[in-house]
Amino acid sequence: xxxxxxxxxxxxxxxxxxxxxxxxxxxxxxxxxxxxxxxxxxxxxxxxxxxxxxxxxxxxxxxxxxxxxxxxxxxxxxxxxxxxxxxxxxxxxxxxxxxxxxxxxxxxxxxxxxxxxxxxxx
Length: 122
Prior knowledge:
Radius of gyration: 25 Å
Helix content: 55-70%
Number of strands: 0
Number of helices: 5
Distance between the termini: 67 Å
Structural class: mainly alpha
Keywords: Plasmid
């Protein structure tokens, strides 16, 4: 079967539910073996689309804040999971964000400094 004939999960669900085709007629054109797998892929596509729309609606400040929270979890995630209850995560993340900002600033300063000239071998 050529790839031009393959339907996306959204197209297959539309043909099955909206246009009233039998799913046995639609399923062979999807590349999926079961209706359950097709529907799971459809739901995943829908969730991905919602995530893309949320990301596109975020302001620059929201994106920066999300990056800071992600950095806190990347750096201190094990500490948070081992020492705190989930209800306390937000408060601790807020407390750790200034530490992450200072760390990032120190890294930028260190990266911008000139560490001396290289010696040239003669």
